[in-house]
Request: fold
Amino acid sequence: MPSMKTNSRTLILPTVLAILLSTSSLLAIETTTVSNLAGQWHGKSRFTGISYKEATQKTITPQDVEIVFYISANGKVTGRIGGAELTNCIVAVNRGWFGRRLHLWTDFVIRGQIVGAVAPDPESGTHPINAPFNFDGTRISGSIFVIYPMKYPYPFFSLRLSR
Reply:
């Protein structure tokens, strides 16, 4: 019966794999979940219009608008952006530890709609939104985009929220 010889090369591969797996497990534990976001978030942002046309033609007087989000532990988001109400909004994890390590995407994203006028003069109605953001443990920072089919997403708000 032939005897199996072990050399340093055959031991290196399993050792490296064991280190990588244990490191990836530790990094995965550090990922923040939606339940960590639960609570009330508030802040203000400069509003110049909900569309590119409103912003560039200066049909809206630039103004600071209050933003209030209520995020539940199950991911449902309610609240308002100025005078517009959030409806059918949910927050979801947008990346894992690997994406965070490579600085790809954002931590979370809110998808849903706003209904009503953000400020007294702009377009009212229902607007689909997408709000990708990062969470640093105490603050949310990102942007809110209006999303329409066959159009480029328009960023109409900067998110800087705290509890």
